[in-house]
Amino acid sequence: MDTTTGSGGGAESGRTSLVTGGTGGIGRAVAMRLARRGDRVIIVGRDRERGEAVVAALHAIHPARHLFLPADLSLLADTDRVATLIAASTRRLDAAVFCAGVLSTIPEWTEEGLERALALNYLSRFLLARRLIPLLRAAPSGRLVLVANAGRYKDSLDFDDLQHRRGRRGLAVSGRTQFANDLLAVELAERLIGTRVEVTCVFPGVTRTEVFRNAVGLPRLVRLAVPLLQHLIRQTPEEAAETPAYLAGDERATGTNGMFFGPRRKVIAVPERASNPERRRLLWEASEALAAPYLANLAGTGGVAAARPSAGSPPAAA
Ligand SMILES: NC(=O)c1ccc[n+]([C@@H]2O[C@H](COP(=O)([O-])OP(=O)(O)OC[C@H]3O[C@@H](n4cnc5c(N)ncnc54)[C@H](OP(=O)(O)O)[C@@H]3O)[C@@H](O)[C@H]2O)c1
Fold it and tell me: Which residues line ligand 1 (CB under 6 A)?
């Protein structure tokens, strides 16, 4: 079965970028901006119709072999499958911008036994990053951009109950996945020192997308208020895409490894809790254990440094 939709044609800049969640919202707008820069863009999402429409729109901006790869990124098996397809479709990735996500206030569990918001908003990003780092390292200046809530959530991760089986409903269901992105950005950035890959984490700003309509578990009153909320939110997806697209493709964004950003390219101080070595270690080890079946074939350490460097000595990434 052919699960991909491509769009072939004209001259290419040589750059290839990946955008997850490229079928809608901020991801779609990031994809458009990157195509305007001359990138070939690969988008991932579930909705085939919207995916195909985005590829057509990308092609209209800049003819290139843009590609839509349908996948459910709340499943690690599907994340792994799409990582394999991406690797088969390009020899290098200049940027990977992770936008796919959901706002959820109730825990749900996938057929893989993982809490859905954690799997989609964080774990699939961990797995995709690990699988794609070799491709990012093959680019002259590889950029990995985590679009989340950079620095805005407290540390509510419970490593004794990562799948939230005993956890409460509420904002923490999503909040902990956003904090996990903070820890991942800092950890990956450190493990990639000495390579040409740079990792950043972004809070795009509150944006008029489908995120509230797509939200899971919002109380009835809030759900009823969503149309009004949407009306009140001023920032458009195009505006929200500015920072992630800049970090993904602009030469001036070199030297940003490990940094957090907000709307309009504003630098956000990395909170101490996101740099906490022990919390980073716990999350990294738990993530490696959960994604273990899909990491087995990575060569060596998969292009990231294996261990934390001792103070003052940057690691050499393998
Ligand atoms: N909007 C805001 O105010 C705001 C604020 C802070 C942070 N963010 C973050 O920004 C990112 C983008 O948000 P948005 O506002 O653009 O949201 P959105 O309009 O709801 O778009 C979400 C995107 O994720 C994809 N997606 C959802 N579930 C998926 C799944 N299981 N597998 C694969 N793709 C999936 C959707 O595509 P399909 O439906 O085709 O699967 C869609 O392309 C999110 O990570 C969000 O947390 C947004």
Answer: 21, 23-27, 45-47, 50, 71-74, 99-102, 120, 147-149, 203-204, 206-207, 209-211, 214
Name the CA radius of gyration of the chain, rounded. 18
Q: Coil, helix or strand for 101?
A: coil
Q: What is the rounded CA–CA span in Å between residue 113 and residue 165?
A: 10
Instruction: Summarize pLDDT for 218-238 with one digit per residue, the tens.
Output: 989 988 998 998 899 999 999
Answer for the pair 219, 230: CB distance below 8 angstroms, yes or no.
Answer: no
Write out the H or E segment, with its range, that includes residue 261: strand 259-261
Q: Which residue shows structure tokens 């995916």?
A: 51
Single-letter residue type at 236: T
Give the span between the Cα atoms of 12 and 92, in whole angstroms: 14
Q: Hey, where are the domains in the chain?
A: 5-293
Centroid of ligand 1 to alpha carbon of 314 (angstroms): 34
Q: How far apart, in whole angstroms, are the C-alpha atoms of residue 77 and residue 58?
A: 28
- 89: tokens are 């479709």
| Tens-digit pLDDT profile for residues 241-255 | 999 999 999 999 999
**Pocket perturbation via mutation, ligand 1, pick of 102, 103, 234, 238 by most ligand atoms within 8 A of CB:** 102
Fold of 5-293: Rossmann fold (3.40.50)
- Report how far residue 54's alpha carbon sits from residue 81's, in angstroms, rounded to the nearest whole number: 21
Q: Which residues contact 232 (CB under 8 A, 6 or more apart)?
A: none
Has residue 8 got a pLDDT over 90? Answer: no
Q: Find the largest Cα–Cα distance for the chain.
A: 54
Burial 223-252 (b: 16+ CB within 10 A, else e): eeeeeeeeeeeebebebbbbbbbbbbbeee
